[in-house]
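Q: I'm a student working through a structural biology exercise. My instructor gave each of us a protein and asked us to get a predicted structure, then write a short paragraph describing it. Mine is CACNA2D2 isoform 3. I'm not confident about reading structure output yet, so if you can add a plain explanation after the tokens, that would really help. Here is the sequence I was given:
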Amino acid sequence: MAVPARTCGASRPGPARTARPWPGCGPQPGPGTRRPTSGPPRPLWLLLPPLLLLPLLAAPSASAYSFPQQHTMQHWARRLEQEVDGVMRIFGGVQQLREIYKDNRNLFEVQENEPQKLVEKVAGDIESLLDRKVQALKRLADAAENFQKAHRWQDNIKEEDIVYYDAKADAELDDPESEDVERGSKANTLRLDFIEDPNFKNKVNYSYAAVQIPTDIYKGSTVILNELNWTEALENVFMENRRQDPTLLWQVFGSATGVTRYYPATPWRAPKKIDLYDVRRRPWYIQGASSPKDMVIIVDVSGSVSGLTLKLMKTSVCEMLDTLSDDDYVNVASFNEKAQPVSCFTHLVQANVRNKKVFKEAVQGMVAKGTTGYKAGFEYAFDQLQNSNITRANCNKMIMMFTDGGEDRVQDVFEKYNWPNRTVRVFTFSVGQHNYDVTPLQWMACANKGYYFEIPSIGAIRINTQEYLDVLGRPMVLAGKEAKQVQWTNVYEDALGLGLVVTGTLPVFNLTQDGPGEKKNQLILGVMGIDVALNDIKRLTPNYTLGANGYVFAIDLNGYVLLHPNLKPQTTNFREPVTLDFLDAELEDENKEEIRRSMIDGNKGHKQIRTLVKSLDERYIDEVTRNYTWVPIRSTNYSLGLVLPPYSTFYLQANLSDQILQVKYFEFLLPSSFESEGHVFIAPREYCKDLNASDNNTEFLKNFIELMEKVTPDSKQCNNFLLHNLILDTGITQQLVERVWRDQDLNTYSLLAVFAATDGGITRVFPNKAAEDWTENPEPFNASFYRRSLDNHGYVFKPPHQDALLRPLELENDTVGILVSTAVELSLGRRTLRPAVVGVKLDLEAWAEKFKVLASNRTHQDQPQKCGPNSHCEMDCEVNNEDLLCVLIDDGGFLVLSNQNHQWDQVGRFFSEVDANLMLALYNNSFYTRKESYDYQAACAPQPPGNLGAAPRGVFVPTVADFLNLAWWTSAAAWSLFQQLLYGLIYHSWFQADPAEAEGNPETRESSCVMKQTQYYFGSVNASYNAIIDCGNCSRLFHAQRLTNTNLLFVVAEKPLCSQCEAGRLLQKETHCPADGPEQCELVQRPRYRRGPHICFDYNATEDTSDCGRGASFPPSLGVLVSLQLLLLLGLPPRPQPQVLVHASRRL
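A: Happy to help. First, here is the predicted structure for CACNA2D2 isoform 3. I'll explain a few features afterward.
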């Protein structure tokens, strides 16, 4: 609120302070008037001896003082500006470093980054890398189809006939409770020796491939044994591929039967509990096995659905959702007499991780009641699929219905919506054990090109919710070569420890025929995949020529980043892809939306924009200029972009051909020179192949020196560009010590250290002892002060992070420093660049005292001003610190300096935590602007379970009334519960396994979550400004003014007289979003632009739909089933063989 116009001399309304004249007598600004700052005078600090800056006398009573006038505070601001500038000119050495670079002009060349040429070269290199993998994929897929076609099916094949390396054998042998150990079925399993391979980050054996079979599939079934038999021949192709391309990583064949054969062999990374890995649920397999899908899942929640059956349905829906990828669209609804969506989504939405999580949580709230109304469910589903006003996959369309049974076939609905073209496939799932006639469910599926499945118990869920992919693969198989196109996946976590990868996929088709003249087989055999580590792609991008704030990024058709410096997932779930949108990796704006759309469309482009960027430590926001250049990566779904600040158009390339000079400069890296030349930190870069990395910079420097004593900077095993630039910058920064720092007395000016950091990777801190307290990153490109200094003109203050602050009692013995840095801009002809950053480290306590003096009414000859009892004087920050609050706040809203001694330990904190009332006023008066964003890569501690005493998950718990009801005991629900309890005794870990532990890294203790981040940055106000915080009797005056050529705001305010005026507290701390970020229900109404794959295979006129899952239904016989369960308890657990029914046609 602006200061209202008042009559000069009138007393200010307020609490019982002695009446004083209204501040600023004379011409006063009206409401909202802002007065620009005048130019700075000569530096006061250069005129004052250090001792005169200490407070000499106690402050007199404030009764005779008034709030300082605006021109007085502007005068203080100019003194502060002059003081900072004077110190930086003397000690920063900006001008001297420019001269040093020019004096050594013969030792380096200025090279230009040409964005278009750079991005096209990198795109071409990535294309060549991926093309080599594509050729290997095609050889594998062709070989697999030929091997399977030549294979003769064996009905009587036995386990002992097949010899292979079982990747899980070692873990199972170590487990005395393993069923396979008890059966002694490891005679056919090879025992291999392994060697450590850094490329795989694992122990491998190049002479064999490994086999992984899901836990819920019986290894001894006929289908699995035949699969193992014919896929053995792939091992020779694996090895030949590696011979042709030694850079190949995992080569994998994922079979539709669930068998995975991968090369080279390595033991499976067994989790702590049960291993639920199934290749058919991996992101790369799902993408390669079928075209994109529009799916509507409808769930019967009528009263006939018993407690256990409803539990099975909920779990089935969640498992079904896990078979969908980001190329798919989905909605979930429940129905009885009416149909309604289970979540807030009213139409098909993208099946991304966050949307699927909303569905999974909503499904758990379904309640069974009412009567079954298939018509309502199917009409709702068809209406969803016919909605053309939304973004969707526009390829395979399907309805998945989960029910316990019913009589109605709803033929009229199919006639109205789906016949005669049958463009929508219908899959029906009979869930639970019951007496209902399933013929209508079978008919629905068979009449609509779908499939009928039965899910009698929890053990059948995973297999029967993924078998529908075989049906969707039929048009692809029938399309033949046209469908044999390599697709590249989203980024995801490799299950064998490679880290983040992308995978090239190629479907493998069954080429056999049942006999001469018979129809072509329409089964997909599986998917072939080859991994490419993101690190291998990153190596093709320029690392250090783009400067600290330049980078390369790549996105896919969904807008998800493949490469980006901000792609840093804190925790990964290998079941899900890593999906970070480009607009979430950066701060979103209209220009970036336009760039993203153009890249997804496969266009080339260039655009210079003004945009906001977040600092590396995520505490600050800077408004910067960036040049974006982008091109498509041919033969892939990716597009590559290059981002360059204008000052990174040029860079230095050292040319140290003089070996004597090399040796001279190298000597300044030796620790023996640190005492006289200052401590040197070197960036931990890959200077040479044989250089041992270390997180300890002292140890890394030692390793570097030892290696340099054996090789020269021109060695072929070293990166000559990095080494020459490092050694050149070592010499240049040493000359700065010699010319500027060595002869200066830092203590006179209350400096703890001076420093310089360079693009070449050198950070020199002077004096040597100051390195003990140096906490900045030794890699300048990863240091927040370095990157911010390049993006900001003038002096950038960086207070210590609040977590690093010491308590007030400890401040006397330990010094706390404030960094002040600025970029060195070098002009060579018409070429401008910023190759270095220099700065000083201020002693907090000494500069806090100095701050009081500079913001006081004394001159260089005066003692602190005294005011007689009968006169009126202006308050200042030194004498009146009991009544006047004076602070310096940086552009992020963090406290830098204060005239209040008790606030020194709060330096570095967000100012709202120090004075919430005043910070809110600064924000409301546009001194600060707020930016909110979401971190989708955060990791959060697991939530403690709320039902520690509950029954095993997924098991229906009957009520007391159920137990007393005779009818309940004769129902299928009672028997189904009994069966589940028996299964629980045998497969106890199945019910207790935590999904994160069952399928993820056993060491994972955190889960991914979304964190809301709030940053503040300077707003539109760039002048001197008076205002009042209106709180009635507790009102406060304040004055705020930006300090020229710095990132500081100078604020003078009355200290609050009472605490009755409560204001909202601005929050800056990162907070957890329980709803996973911005409201998903709102976001799906504004879907971001994306494109699906270019081709779609959802129809083929020759498709044979007669195989549609015709099963048999029978009422459960209590005697027979109890006998079977007793056999299970005696140690003969059942072996699931879902392929016997579903894959009956695989017998060839």
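A: Here are two points you could use in your paragraph. The chain has a mean pLDDT of 83. DSSP finds 35 helices and 39 strands in the chain. It's a good idea to check both against the output above yourself.
Q: Great, thank you!
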